[in-house]
Each structure stands twice: as structure tokens, then as C-alpha cells.
Amino acid sequence: MAATYRTPAGASLTEALVQEIRQDFPLLAQEVNGHPLAYLDSGATSQNPLQVLDAERNFYLGANSAVHRGAHTLAVEATEAFEEARRTLAGFIGAREEEIVWTSNATEAVNLLTYSLGNASQGLGGPQAAPYALGPGDEIVTTEQEHHANIIPWQVLAARTGATLRYIPVTDQGLIDYEAAQNIIGESTRILAFTHVSNVAGSITDVDYLVSLARKVGALTLLDACQSAPHLPLDLAQLDVDFAVLSAHKMLGPTGIGALYGKAQHLDALPPFLTGGSMITKVTMTEAQWMPAPTKFEAGTQRVSQAVAWAEAIRYLDHLGMENVQAWEAQLGQQLAAGIQEIPGARLIGPAPGQERAGLAAFHLEGVHPHDVGQFLDQTGLAVRVGHHCAQPLHRALGITASTRASSYIYNTPAEIDRFLQELAKVRPYFGYSS
Ligand SMILES: Cc1ncc(COP(=O)(O)O)c(C=O)c1O
């Protein structure tokens, strides 16, 4: 059953249209601590529209079955829905369906790749995987701006293989230092892993530039698209990255599902990470042969209802139009950055107001712990994220241990941002600071 929408397809987002969109998200209509909820934490996890909840429920009501197995009608229907979801995601991000591997989330997607590369380094996968093997003298490069999901798996891979992990530093504003990148990426670089949109700085990475540096030295690239796929048009084929990772729950979809994108030639050559049922063609007592990609990377019973629901979330975003989503959030991001900058004692992280940024802004309020900021705001119904946002190296580089982050999405309004800024301005005075 095709979902119906309250807004016309591809219309520029306006306050009136956003009010319509909010009707699809009943959760947003509630009060928290006696105030209307203003949900400004979509960078951590987004909310689900009714269309997505209905899609998951309808799957369970009418087609639930294990995929790629039984010959019965439900199994065939479930398999079709599952593979249709893969095609939907592929189309949304400029990929081919065989280049999409389902995972539990983006974190598992990075781990899948790093374990697969580690396996290749140990000879698993035979001669076709050998070019992917890493060892002493090889360098893996990431940036100081990354989420821990794009740091720790590389640390473990480096430890497993003897390769060296290097970091492109950030500037005082928390932005990738592109000049330093030039000197760090060199002949020894085998992999360059970086985020598309920073979950703390809100900056949008110059992907073309970093990919061109990697291409010059023949290094593979991984793009962390967790904070970009939900918020701006994404064409991985055009960006020409080798791998990318995404999480459904950050883009109106359910928790429990994410994806690894890999160019077909890499996924064909690399050995699997998890092994077991569903990913083989033949098993004997001593060995097994694997299915072609992406199935060889999808061992065990699959997350079918989540894939179906994620596809519905993608159709929802597609209906709005990602250019419109990006434009609306850019406006909210600028409103946040400009407003935070005005508040005495607030240090904005990331691009200055007026410079390109996504719809989120993190900051440090001098003299007040971010947890106190978060609690203060929560008393007035404002939901923001506090802490290190899984980016300790970035915070350390900025000389702070934690920050407060407000992150917006398609259902947030300029009035909510105003409310947030008004309450934020009261925090330092409440804690006894006069300026
Ligand atoms: C930039 C970035 N990368 C990776 C992740 C990890 O996503 P997940 O926890 O869904 O695996 C997040 C989540 O906060 C993120 O913001």
C-alpha cells in the first residue's frame, strides 16, 4: 500500500508546510515538564513519521517471513520487499543494489569493513583479496573530527595488521585542516576515512578534495555519511568514494539497521566478516564457499521489517526533496549559529555564522557544565544533546571535555530555535554569571 502525504511533492519547505509535516510525527505534539516539546536532538536519533511506523506494522501484519529461504508465498513476498528496500536505498544514494550491505547500524558497517580488511590481511579471501592486505609501513588516515565509530575500528585494524593510524588535525574552530591533510596523505596511505558532515562542528567536508588526494596515492576512501544522507542530496557514485556508511535511525527510519556501501569491485574481492547461515553456496565439514556480494556479508536472519521501514523513510524524504530538506535546515543552522554567537560566554564550535553549515550547532558555555545546560533546557521542554557526542578527540583538540548540541530536522521550526536561544540566554545568569 503506497503511503499518502500531506505536502505536495518537491515543494520548498515553509513554516506552513513544516506544520503539516509535524502532523505525521505525533510524538512531537507532547508536553515535557509542562512545556511543548522542542526536539532538537535529531543528530542523535530522528523521529519516525506515521508512514514509516505503518510500513513496519503492515509488514508484520501481512508479509512477515524469513527472506531468501522458503519457497512459500510469504517468504517470496518478504524477500521481494527486502530487496525492493535495497533498491530504494541504492537509488537514494547513487549506488547499485549489489553495492548495499545491510548492517545493524553505521558502527557495525565500519567494523564490517575493518574486520574484512583484517581478514584479507591474514590471507582469507585468497589472491583476489590480497591487494587489500595491510601490514607494517602502511598507513590508515582518518581525521580528528570523527565520531568514535570512525576511529576505534581503525585503531583495532591497525593493531591487528601492524599498519599505522594517522590523523588529519582540526583547526581551532574544529574544522578539518585541509592544508595539513596534504602533508599527511602520501605514498604510504592505503585508506582515508572521513566524515561528510561533522556531528559536532556541523561543517560539510570538501569530499572532492579529500578524494582527489587519496586517488593520487591510490588509497581507498570511506565516507561516514551518517549526518549527510539524512540532510542533503547524496550521490556516492559522483563523489567517487569507495565505501560509505549510514544509519537508518538518523533519517526518519527505525533503529537496528544501517548499511555499508562498497563499490562492487571491492565487495566482490573482500572476504566476509560474519559467517554462518544464509551467506554460503556450499558447506562441508572442513570449509565453505560464499555467495557473491552483498549476500556473503549478510550472515544470519535478516532485519527485514527494518529494511522495509527504512525504505518508507527514504520515500518520505524523496517526496519532500533533499534540496528542500537541505535548504530548510541550512536556515535553521544559521539561526542557531548566529543566536549562539550572540550569547555572552558561549563559544560556538564549527563554521562562523554566515559560513556553510548543516542544521546543527554545538557550543561550550563558559563556566557551566553541559549537563547542567541540558537539564536547565529540559525543564522548559527543550531536548538537546550534551556530552562529548562520541567525539572525544575533537573535544580534546578544542580544549574542552564536552559541549551542548542542538540539531534540527525537517520538523523543526524557526520558532523552536528562538525558544531555545531565549532559554539558553538565561543559563549563565541562572548560574550566577553577570556577563
Ligand atoms: C557522524 C556519525 N558517525 C557515526 C555514527 C554512529 O552511528 P550509529 O550509532 O547509528 O552506528 C554517528 C551517530 O551518532 C554519527 O553522528
Any overview of this molecule?
The chain has 435 residues and is α/β, with parallel strands linked by helices. 38% of the residues lie in helices and 16% in strands. It is built from 16 helices and 17 strands. It has helices spanning 15-23, 50-62, 73-92, 106-121, 126-129, 152-161, 178-184, 207-216, 236-239, 264-269, 304-320, 322-342, 370-378, 392-397, 414-424, 427-430; strands spanning 31-32, 35-36, 38-39, 100-103, 139-143, 164-168, 189-195, 220-224, 243-247, 258-262, 280-283, 288-290, 346-348, 360-365, 382-383, 385-387, 403-407. Strands 4-10-9-8-7-5-6 form a 7-stranded mixed β-sheet, sandwiched between helices. A 4-stranded antiparallel β-sheet has the order 13-14-17-16, with helices on one face. It has a two-stranded antiparallel ribbon with strand order 1-2. Helix 6 links the parallel strand 5 and strand 6. Helix 2 runs antiparallel to helix 11 (304-320) and helix 12 (322-342) runs parallel beside helix 15 (414-424). The termini are far apart. 49% of the residues are buried. The structure holds pyridoxal-5'-phosphate. Pyridoxal-5'-phosphate binds next to helix 4. The site of pyridoxal-5'-phosphate (PLP) has 14 residues, from helix 4.
